[in-house]
## 1
Amino acid sequence: MISNSDRLRTHRFGVNYTPSRHWYYCWNDFDPGAIARDFDAIAALGLDHLRVMTIWPWFQPNPAWVSPAHLDRLGAMMSLAQTRGLDVCVTAFTGHLTGYQLVPAYMKGKDFYTDPSIRRTQRRYLEALASVCAGRPNFLGLDLGNEINCAWRPRTREEGDAWLEWALTLCDTYAPGAIHVNGVDHQPYFIEHSFTPHALVHRQPVVPLHCWIEFTGARQRGGPLDEVCVSLPAAMAHLARAHAADPRRPIWLQEYGASACWMKAEVVPAFCETTTRRAIDAGVSWFTWWASHDIDPALRFDQLEYSLGLFTHQNRPKPQAGVFAELAAEYAGKPVRRHSPLDRLPAITDDVGLSYASTWDWLERAMSASQTALRPAATSGPRSA
């Protein structure tokens, strides 16, 4: 049996699944045929995993009741993925997705992180999800939610860290041996927000990073193919490792992508390739593009959300799908490699007073160091992580 440590030091390529038919309203209007066609297209690219969002208020509309129908649909989706060789990470408290806040009605006036009744509700939900997923050969693990810090912010980071420890311990109890994470956005690494970087990089077996050039401010500092954008995930990987004081810490690039609102469509394939290769050079292990499919413009989302897929909503591959498939063919299953100069990045021991200005100063210095020291070292042969 392959250990989790070995799995986390092997490259993987996958997608954040966005159903081509009816977005995640598919949980309420379930069409196994449409999902199977989506998974066929994804598997045909040679990808090996999905990140799938459950929608908390639909799956658990009452604190005392988790919908058996929705759990059955999750099981069916897991089975469809398994037959196509796709492993699945399942998010729990979502929460926040595609710009929407999807909050259960019973959360009104209650604190997500500390209220005892909400803790009992959350425990019931995690146990229910694990009852469907645990033991399946294609179950990667639970993600506590999609960017829960965007939906619920604790009063202090200490409260956030305490909840993180409690929730991940439950996941380890209900689904032992799986890889459980907390897929927050970039903010806890840029400002004092919801969780400390120390807790995030030490409590999780792999550090998931959401590296969006728009929301981090990279796009405001340069064009989509400038270093500040294409090296953002690599630099954020260095940043997470600096908080961990561990240059070998496994990193999962869990969300990155490109909207036609941020760059011309013909630029996206080059952005995808260059960004991914920079992150591979930095020793990132797993790559999960956002998203699998475009959203049908007939649905009312923000304009930026419609063009993020590797496939159109008619399930036709876009040029970036071919690029991502070529990267997967080149690197998937191979051991992660890291250039030795990364070992010299200084640890970050004080995360009080984090700000966008100070974080960007650190990131830009890391990018500069990478260009002057790391990339020339590639010719002398990288060493195994």
Note: DSSP finds 14 helices and twelve strands in the chain.
## 2
Amino acid sequence: MKDDFALWQEYSKTNSSAVREQLIVNYAYLVKYIVSRMPQAAIPGVDYDDLVGYGVLGLIDAIERFDMSRGVKFETYAMTRIRGSIIDNLRRMDWAPRSVRHKARQIECAMADAESVTGRPATDEEIADRLKVDIDTLHRWTWEISMASYSSLDELIAVDDEHNVATLLDFVSDDGSPDPEMILEKDELYDALADAIDHLPEREGLVIKLYYFEEMTIKEIARVLGVSESRVSQLHTKAMMRIRVEIMESRGCQCQPR
């Protein structure tokens, strides 16, 4: 059996469907790995096999688009495409209720308002006060958002005032020569993301680092922190909202709940 490098060489020369199918088989583990780490896989009404199917579509797209000459590791490129395909299909299903998305925007704006005054991460009490709800209601909203959330650091690279997100792939040109302005833009986005993570409250920052950088699952993080998996999901959700708020502010976007 040919190794992956030989398969890629053959595919780049022949565009053979048989070779493409072998590459799909060889990299199918990436789809299962990504789906296993997505909280959506545990949500009632979201079928695991559907998520895998969406991921396979992303894998096929990655194989067809991949350019060996650019010196990018295929696994890194493919994982973003796979996750993006799953998220795009979930968005088309519109399985996250509009009311939940509205609550997320309200919380983000309350965070931004509180943090603009205090200069530090907003506490739950400060967020609840600005929303004019009690703490239990805020925690319930956060739980609802965590169950419907499809945000991750792979998507959360750039955010505009319409709450649209983009990955670094959206900033990469298809031509061979890099654009200096584009390189500067990516560097600024990386800096903003790193700064936002550094400013997270301790436990939220730990969840982000364990999940994305140590590649631990929600269940593993729950054991480390000695809390429930739902609590880890809530911490992850709040961290992602804080990161989104900080990046929006760094890019001059105003939070406007709709």
Note: The beta strands are 158-159, 165-166.
